[in-house]
Amino acid sequence: MKTVIIKECGDIKTSDVYTFDLNKKVVKDCIGCWSCWWKTPGRCSFNDLNEFYHRYITADKAIYFVRVTKEFVSGNLKTLFDRMIPLYLPYTVYTSGESMHVPRYEKYPDIEFYYEGKFETHSGRQIFVDYINRVFYQFYSKNIIIKPIGEFIAEGDDNT
User: Fold this and answer.
1) What digits encode the pLDDT tens for the residues 56-107?
2) CATH number at residue 122
3) Structural domain range at position 8
4) How many domains is the chain partitioned into structurally?
């Protein structure tokens, strides 16, 4: 199973897995030029995320380890989500009562999303969880797991 890891927190040790470390990479803002749809389909004209795009779209699973900032995702992670638009076509369909971009690829990775941080209220956590579910629903991911980082169990770990 091909896995990609997107992380901004946690001391997760991985081998033979592509890791996109948001602590080492500041993602440039999307400038809305549409080049990723018209001039270089599937790739941003900045050319700074090409390897990430390839690894993400060919992965069976994407595991996120993120830091909750003011009960929301960090600005850097939100920018990465915005910059993932080249993975979809510029056309939209009206499905299940809402507008969505048409998928560019046949499959998208399953998601395991682990967060580090606390929420002031249950409703604050629910808003966060709902947002993450909506993002990956719009990204055509089929299986989405959202849990606190303390509940992460690496594949092959024996939790006995």
Assistant:
1) 999 999 999 999 989 999 999 999 999 999 999 999 999 778 899 999 999 9
2) 3.40.50.360
3) 3-151
4) 1
